[in-house]
Amino acid sequence: MWNDFDPIYDGNKLMEAKCKHCKRVFVAAREVGTSSCLRHMLVCEERAKTYEFLDSMKSTMSQSDPNSSEKWMYDSDRAHFELVRMIVLHELPFRIVEYQGFKKFVHSLNPAFQLVSRTTIRLDCINMFVQHKVTLQDVLQKLDSRVSLTLDMWTSRQVMSYMCITCHFIDEKWKLRKKVIWFSEADTPHDGTNLFNIMLDCMEDWSLQKKRFSPLR
Ligand SMILES: [Zn+2]
């Protein structure tokens, strides 16, 4: 049954199970048993759609490679994550999710995939940015070494000036890492004082002041 449900634990104790297809949650604690989950599997419409789709895919693929779809499992969260990543990676407009052509394309791949509105996908992109930032902040805070900050100016075609700050550091595996930690419009004049102030804002935002004053090891 765990092909179709995600377990939800309280500490080490299994409490509930969440249907991977429709996201409904059912009690699954040992005392109660999993019968409500098993009953749900028989009636879940989203699950039925997914398996119907998988079957049709298997039948079309069976000639070329009989095993290629055996281990593949549709995961709506994973698909949504990949959509957000694609939009960010290729700087696509958020409204791509509302294009008729895109909707039809996605539907042809998997009719069970639920597309969201452009306002929702925009929020999802921002949330993913925040998550990544928190993760990187944690890495920088726990870092045993110093960091090197590099500042660069960039002018867009609309003659707007931007400042980009890149952070280089050596991680615990002695690998050189490079991360863009700041990208903002820079007010004129682009003199030393203004650039220095932006650099200070950046260091405060990333709590890097401590690093600056840490004694040499
Ligand atoms: Zn379900």
Question: Can you tag this structure with a few keywords?
Answer:
217 residues; alpha+beta; Nuclear Transport Factor 2, Chain: A; 3 domains; three-stranded antiparallel beta sheet; 7 helices; 43% helix; 20% strand; binds zinc ion
Listed once per kind, the bound small molecules are:
zinc ion
Query: Reading side by side through the largest sheet, how are the strands ordered?
Result: 1-2-3
Encode the helix/strand succession as letters.
Answer: EEEHHHHHEEEHH
Point out poorly predicted stretches.
Answer: 213-217
Beginning-to-end CA distance, first to last residue: 54 Å
What does this structure look like?
With 217 residues, the chain is of the alpha+beta class. The protein folds into three domains: 1-74, no CATH class; 75-142, no CATH class; 146-213, Nuclear Transport Factor 2, Chain: A (Roll), CATH 3.10.450. The protein is built from seven helices and six strands, in the order βββαααααβββαα. It has helices at residues 35-43, 45-61, 76-89, 100-109, 118-142, 192-205, 209-213, and strands spanning 5-10, 13-19, 25-27, 148-155, 161-170, 176-185. The strands form two sheets. Strands 1-2-3 form a three-stranded antiparallel β-sheet, with helices on one face. The protein has a three-stranded antiparallel β-sheet with strand order 4-5-6, covered by helices on one side. β4 (148-155) and β5 form a beta hairpin. α3 (76-89) packs across α5 (118-142). The longest helix is centred in the middle third of the chain and has 25 residues, at 118-142. The radius of gyration is 24 Å and the shape is extended. Residues 213-217 have low confidence and may be disordered. The structure holds zinc ion. Zinc ion binds next to α2.
